[in-house]
């Protein structure tokens, strides 16, 4: 089964073709980093207009790369949320029109759950479930127990800020370019994480929750008190200490989650922070079960994860008798757009 995936939830326009939820035939991403860099973050109106400009040519390019015609596509999956409302509207409207024109099923996909399927691509399913699935990005820090490809039992989430958002804000406080996470990681490699005592957020072992607001405030106050300009060695130490506490919090909560769900055979990590090499090293050092990370191209927002998850949503829905007809999407739209704006 060939599924065309469309992603436009934030500042990346993406289209992909995936076979049977496993084999990526094409995955194209148009990044808007350069557009938003002068503003130090994503400007929703600019993001929406950029999606409008490139979505159709990107779709044609992805189909050509996969060597399939639009008529050969079996279903279309599109991000329904969460995300920026204007950006989501562009992707959903395009997908609805395409599905209606081709007479193909249209599959609504949850962006956060889809991230996990980006991490699952290439992982042998017969040795995977049940698994702990972690989404760590600029907008989300969620931990799920998965017993199957569409089963998501939320075990814990951030009570305030997301981990990736905290990385970017700390980078901005240090005067590093946008997006800041990769620059913090790069500088941390030459720093000493023990040089600066860091507060421990959500220290109670019994709480499988994440919190980054206090850590961000601590870094803001520390950086503000530093003499200017801050010496390069001191910046590297600040980055290393912050990074180890930000990621260490997640590792501690994963250890507790494994005690509560001993049946979990593995950990799947997804989202932009999954690209962090220090994160991979910490999990390898401190967690006993195998941890799977997506390739770098599938860590950030992409459409391969949308198509892969869409395949499983379609298979499960079809078994229940759902046809995913595009003309019924008004109901989906009313519900999802209301949820996005809450």
Poorly predicted spans: 331-342
Distance between the termini: 35 Å
- Structure summary, number of beta strands: 10
Strand order, main sheet: write it out: 3-2-1-4-5
Relative helix content: 40-55%
Q: Give me the strand/helix succession.
A: EEEHHEHEHEEEHHHHEHEHH
Radius of gyration: 20 Å
Shape: globular
Compact description:
With 342 residues, this protein is α/β, with parallel strands linked by helices.
Sum up the structure in keywords:
alpha/beta; five-stranded mixed β-sheet; 11 helices; 45% helix
What is the topological layout?
Layout: E1 2-7, E2 12-19, E3 23-31, H1 33-36, H2 44-66, E4 75-81, H3 85-102, E5 106-110, H4 111-120, E6 131-136, E7 141-146, E8 153-157, H5 163-173, H6 181-188, H7 213-225, H8 232-260, E9 266-270, H9 277-286, E10 291-292, H10 304-319, H11 329-341
Parallel strand pairs: 1-4, 4-5, 6-9, 9-10
Antiparallel strand pairs: 1-2, 2-3, 6-7, 7-8
Helix pairs in contact: 2-3, 4-10, 5-7, 5-8, 6-8, 8-9
Describe the structure.
- This protein is of the alpha/beta class.
- The chain is built from eleven helices and ten strands.
- It has helices spanning 33-36, 44-66, 85-102, 111-120, 163-173, 181-188, 213-225, 232-260, 277-286, 304-319, 329-341, and strands at residues 2-7, 12-19, 23-31, 75-81, 106-110, 131-136, 141-146, 153-157, 266-270, 291-292.
- The strands form two sheets. The chain has a five-stranded mixed sheet, with helices on both faces.
- α9 links the parallel β9 and β10.
- The longest helix has 29 residues, at 232-260.
- It is globular.
- The protein starts with a strand and ends with a helix.
- The model is unreliable at 331-342 (pLDDT under 50).
């Amino acid at each position: 089964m060939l599924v065309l995936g469309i992603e436009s939830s934030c500042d990346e326009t993406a289209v992909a073709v995936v076979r049977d939820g496993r084999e990526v035939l094409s995955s194209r991403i148009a990044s808007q980093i350069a557009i938003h860099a002068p503003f130090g973050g994503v400007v929703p109106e600019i993001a929406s207009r950029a999606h409008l400009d490139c979505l159709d040519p990107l779709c044609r390019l992805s189909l050509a790369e996969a060597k399939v015609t639009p008529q050969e596509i079996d279903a279309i999956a599109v991000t329904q949320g969460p995300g920026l409302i204007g950006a989501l509207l562009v992707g959903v409207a395009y997908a609805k029109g395409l599905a209606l024109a081709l007479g193909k099923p249209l599959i609504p996909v949850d962006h956060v759950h889809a991230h996990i399927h980006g991490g699952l691509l290439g992982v042998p399913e017969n040795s995977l479930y049940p698994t702990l699935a972690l989404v760590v990005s600029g907008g989300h820090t969620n931990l799920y127990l998965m017993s199957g490809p569409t089963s998501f039992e939320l075990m814990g989430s951030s009570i305030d800020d997301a981990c990736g958002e905290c990385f970017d804000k700390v980078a901005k406080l240090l005067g590093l370019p946008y997006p800041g996470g990769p620059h913090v990681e790069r500088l941390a490699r030459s720093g000493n994480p023990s040089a600066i005592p860091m507060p421990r957020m959500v220290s109670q072992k019994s709480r499988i929750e994440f919190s980054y607001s206090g850590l961000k405030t601590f870094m803001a106050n520390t950086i503000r008190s530093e003499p200017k300009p801050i010496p390069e060695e001191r910046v590297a130490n600040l980055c290393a200490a912050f990074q180890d506490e930000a990621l260490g919090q997640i590792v501690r909560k994963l250890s507790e989650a494994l005690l509560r769900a001993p049946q979990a055979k593995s950990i799947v990590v997804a989202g932009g922070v999954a690209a962090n090499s220090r994160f991979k090293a910490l999990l390898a050092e401190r967690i006993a079960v195998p941890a799977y990370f997506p390739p770098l191209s599938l860590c950030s927002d992409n459409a391969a994860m949308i198509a892969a998850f869409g395949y499983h949503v379609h298979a499960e829905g079809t078994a229940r008798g759902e046809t995913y007809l595009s003309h019924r999407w008004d109901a989906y739209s009313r519900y999802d757009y209301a949820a996005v704006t809450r």
